[in-house]
## 1
Amino acid sequence: MYTELKREAYEANVSLPRHGLINLTFGNASAVDRARGVFAIKPSGVDYTAMTVEDMVIVDFDGKRVEGTLNPSSDTPTHRRLLMAFEEIGGVVHTHSSHATAFAQAGMPIPIFGTTHADYFNGEIPVTRKMTAEEIGTAYEWETGNVIVERLGNVDPLDFPGVLVNRHAPFTWGKTVAKAVEVAVAVECIAHMAMMSLQLAPKLPQIEPELLAKHFKRKHGPGAYYGQSDTKTKS
Amino acid sequence: MYTELKREAYEANVSLPRHGLINLTFGNASAVDRARGVFAIKPSGVDYTAMTVEDMVIVDFDGKRVEGTLNPSSDTPTHRRLLMAFEEIGGVVHTHSSHATAFAQAGMPIPIFGTTHADYFNGEIPVTRKMTAEEIGTAYEWETGNVIVERLGNVDPLDFPGVLVNRHAPFTWGKTVAKAVEVAVAVECIAHMAMMSLQLAPKLPQIEPELLAKHFKRKHGPGAYYGQSDTKTKS
Amino acid sequence: MYTELKREAYEANVSLPRHGLINLTFGNASAVDRARGVFAIKPSGVDYTAMTVEDMVIVDFDGKRVEGTLNPSSDTPTHRRLLMAFEEIGGVVHTHSSHATAFAQAGMPIPIFGTTHADYFNGEIPVTRKMTAEEIGTAYEWETGNVIVERLGNVDPLDFPGVLVNRHAPFTWGKTVAKAVEVAVAVECIAHMAMMSLQLAPKLPQIEPELLAKHFKRKHGPGAYYGQSDTKTKS
Amino acid sequence: MYTELKREAYEANVSLPRHGLINLTFGNASAVDRARGVFAIKPSGVDYTAMTVEDMVIVDFDGKRVEGTLNPSSDTPTHRRLLMAFEEIGGVVHTHSSHATAFAQAGMPIPIFGTTHADYFNGEIPVTRKMTAEEIGTAYEWETGNVIVERLGNVDPLDFPGVLVNRHAPFTWGKTVAKAVEVAVAVECIAHMAMMSLQLAPKLPQIEPELLAKHFKRKHGPGAYYGQSDTKTKS
């Protein structure tokens, strides 16, 4: 019944190890169908190589499993929280990609040092505050979503399509789950380069505002002129 | 006669270079059959690409070769010591994976900075004390096992499923040898991220106890809720 | 009509991800036909795996699209500027390769520490000044080419076959676009090694002039004795 | 006429990019036939993917090309010098592998921090002195061999089967060229781990002498007990 949605989630999930973002089973992706009020997500702890389209689990916005026999990812409440809060997004991706996770573990946002970063984020990549013992002890995964939403505040989630969860790892999103995967790739690459730029120049200031604006707007918003209008898959 | 056990050990051994944990012949894996009192282990110095299931060597707990024509790994006494000391484990893996070995060479435990680590270890990844000249000069490989056992002390070996041997490299274990391989992958990944977090924040404190407890218990013990009950291969 | 030129540009473009220089769509290559006054370049934002020879866009030196239905790369004016300024070159390559980009983001030239570097560049790999708000706000991509040309000044562009654009990433060139790809590979490798040499020896002086001269001239100019005269593809 | 020797050299050469030791054409391997007084070596600047067994060039100890139509590697005099000086070796390998080259560029030996290193070298991996302007200006490649020989002095070349050439990169050797390739892989891996151990512990002392002796002798000399006596390819 949800074949297309499951396929979309499946393709995103299996692309994560292919992009080198996932070791073992450290990550998951979800794709939402807003008209039907459900999303498809990876089953918990299943090997990427053994996983099939049919294994994707369909969950509704109350957190109820609507279709599928496997348990959904233990991170499902985080996905659900984000999909509910950010109505313009079509999917969420969670990885433990190494360089981005190194920043998350250190509780540091990723400073914006160059145009690669500015092509994807309208500023530094934010990091959440630490979660409280109470948040951890109760509905942990749902609260993980909450601290992300709290951190973003009033900015447009498509201007900042990802957040590092303190002590944990990145979550990214986009208009489609495929776009959320692309942002996850970019975040890992940006983190790697930022770390090396910091090693070369420990006091490096962030990018100049006019260059940030130029690059971000080349790809986003009404004046965007990157890519094709509708002919081929754009990045 | 020991075909299944040999196959299990063989699969674990050949997966090590596939996971990028092994260069040349730097590593080995063993799988135990407790009922029959033997374990299967990689032959010494044989190339991973040339190795076959039949090349696995069967050794008993006295260190006697029970089946096979090749010499077992020179690290066999270390495996034997660990398999004897930790009765709940089904296999042992030894690698010289780069980032974990960098910590081992420096004689430093791997500090626990994030949830990736907490998913596998209930605290930092321990490092042994240095071995004495006497230990090195006599039954070196057996004594290597002894310093690991000494370092673990009274903790549950499944709460700390691996140890770095000072100046040497990591050994890991698990309920099965496949699980020991998984821990070896995780240890390398954790070591890499810890090193980068330290580079970003040299005085970074370790993870908060409640977050450690939450993540470790999501995956281990009676309250675990990660993965599937029995449907598919869990991680 | 421009099949050979398109094929040359296509081969260069698809070799970039194969060399590990490109993530997603971060990069592009162009090949020029000086007799006909046109160059072939990658279309904007098209996935490398979906791209075909026919997708290459033919552009003339006024920046007009002469053949092809897709939009050319948004970096086309930078390529055009370089192809016009450096008459001895046959192609231009732009990547965001990680280590070279880390230097570019830090606004640092890549110091010349060894013979690998001296095999390709007759000194350090230059970095441009930062672009002004006005340059960024008007014909940004054309001005990007201008700051590269300004930085090179009067040196032979084949003595310095690449420049880092400040806050951005490397551009490289060569007698052919295939050679420009080779330089892009070398720049990334050189950047990686320079960063590590700096980590080992933060005050490391640059290479001795006589060793630089020796290695550069082994491969370039009338006394070159590296490679074959005409038998096989040389590097 | 020299088919077996050419094949041996060819196999070693094409294995270098497969081991990730070579980018572009940065490297070469030679295999010697002492009875016939010749060695086979890679042709200069030929692409690894285009190279065939027949392309290997046969050179004698006077440096004369005995068979083959291509120019031999420009590094041929270095190989010749080493093959003449170290009579117990069967082949030489030269790479610009990244981490080892970073040490060479910095003019630093690779300190011996762990057992991986002690399995291959009986102490730190030496680095040559810088070459003089006169050495560089005359028979540069032959003199490169000379500074390596000078640096080794009276030690057994099989106790120290490789040297870093200052400002340049590693050369390794072994009883066979296949063994020299293995050492080249080990040197790169050892360099990577040493750099990381230094990052974790900048004042880390080198390995304890008894542990060095134990590991080196497990694999080398009359008391060696690593590997198989003659059944299978040993490492």
## 2
Amino acid sequence: MQTLHVDLGERSYPIHIGRGLLNQPELILPHLKRKQVAIVTNTTVAPLYLEKLAQPLRDAGVKVIPIILPDGEAYKNSATLNLIYDALLENRCERSTTVIALGGGVIGDLTGYAAATYLRGVPFIQVPTTLLSQVDSSVGGKTGINHPLGKNMIGAFYQPQVVLADIDTLSTLPERELSAGLAEVIKYGLIRDEPFFAWQESNMQKLLALDTEAMSYAIYRSCENKAEVVAADERESGERALLNLGHTFGHAIENAMGYGVWLHGEAVAAGTMLAADLSRRLGWLSDDDIKRIVAIFTEARLPVHAPALGVERYLDLMGLDKKVVDGQIRLVLQQGIGKSLVSSEYDAQLLRETLAIAA
Amino acid sequence: MQTLHVDLGERSYPIHIGRGLLNQPELILPHLKRKQVAIVTNTTVAPLYLEKLAQPLRDAGVKVIPIILPDGEAYKNSATLNLIYDALLENRCERSTTVIALGGGVIGDLTGYAAATYLRGVPFIQVPTTLLSQVDSSVGGKTGINHPLGKNMIGAFYQPQVVLADIDTLSTLPERELSAGLAEVIKYGLIRDEPFFAWQESNMQKLLALDTEAMSYAIYRSCENKAEVVAADERESGERALLNLGHTFGHAIENAMGYGVWLHGEAVAAGTMLAADLSRRLGWLSDDDIKRIVAIFTEARLPVHAPALGVERYLDLMGLDKKVVDGQIRLVLQQGIGKSLVSSEYDAQLLRETLAIAA
């Protein structure tokens, strides 16, 4: 097991990465205020992993309240959030009750937001069971839900007490979701870590085969990259925006196609290609860089072509995005592999050209 | 105008107290990230004060988005919260848009919670228009909504950029609401400031008559007391719980009678009398102390008798309260006027006797 410490002053916490972590209650017990936890999970994850996590805790004398939600991005909304509140209240959970998220990004976001807002905040533990949530939602404290008018529009910054990233849970992950998680791994290389990107070029087949050593390294280094960015900018005013490479385009794609039709990582991959295309038009990325990016996404079985929504629809959907300042669309763009910047200083016509070739 | 500085490190902010503040946009302008605000208010306050606040801002070049909600505690729920989110999204409000709460405690709590959670947090300004909200919700950063199973069960700690407590707005406040606000003023004397309590005994008629000097002093000293407590304990783990004198009983009363039937301050007054009765049974308050408390509440036209709900119903309702640790009901009790403590170390039978005489 490896442990990464996310340094956020009094909100610091450890991320444990390895195999068999669900069955190690000693990683959780020191963080409990009292021996009572609510485990929030979904109908897909519950039959696979709920008892693996719950039984050792019960054996250690912890009262476990399971809260099982429907599965899917479509349920990341206020109605599902209310199911969590209702269950916590019906079980008279108090401020000393710890809420544990067991599942992927949707469960983590929903549960973290419920923990942030139930009784104005109760302790929270993350047990991410998808690669995407292990490398992305584990770090940064972003929680929230979707609104009919936009993704992640309602939420809070809220840090967990501890994160357990158990690689064993990836063995039941559908291939498509594994690839979607790799999109975020690739992102860290692209935005700030060229050596990591080069390592991925040599190790993508091992990652796809769930090789223990390679996967542990990829998760650790992804979280480390994200933690460095977040520690410097917890509330997303500056550098943290780089983590949104491909996301402004990606959110537009997810929104237009209907949440859950494209996986988040798939939309991010296609969105990253749009950002790369615009960066190339600005003269910041070479044709060779583009080839490397296309190659790695393709090897990771990710889409490199965004859907044809039309320029105006893209612009409209992007205008609702949170990364907008004074009506200008700020985008994360690249200046080579491993180097990125946030800019609204680009020729609007070039953005239209990029969007026009989508599809 | 007097200004009190609430010291919370990087979340510090000023409270301005005086007359004619709505018409002083220069108190707001320095706090705006961009010249766009959403003013959230209700159908009662809007005709009285919305334009008084909005027009000077518009004259200063600020775009004003009014959001007018139905009035009443019954609307402090997720449905009304969604009306705010919808309006912010429909107007494409961004992270640089400041949200202003113009109204009483319900508007302040709802709006503050919307500001805390919209796009994971946007800047927030409080313009409280009731005495209760001026002396209570102005300080402490508590925001939130009610749940069908309990009051203020969902929320966040979120600090404003600035608070404007304009005494002019009290001139349109119904007499009953003025008294409800005085319940919280009296509370500060009771829990930690005997000289302030004694001052109130001499000045209650001036306060009821809205004497400018007396009212400014009462608001300033109430906020000062609360700010001292909150600065020492922003997230309510210790001393801050003293601010809940009468509230555990009071919330039970509000809940049982239906939100809004008893005003919050009325329920707090009756709840404070229950806490005082239990304190007397414990030998911590003298009969003379009880007489002084009854006298000041009575002079302030507040109820001193709690409704007869029955002992079991009280205990059941109190068991859902946030101030519960490990199943024990912790209560704020008094050890003389101006001295209070939080305790679960009391004879449960004495609590039952106190509840049995309610009514």
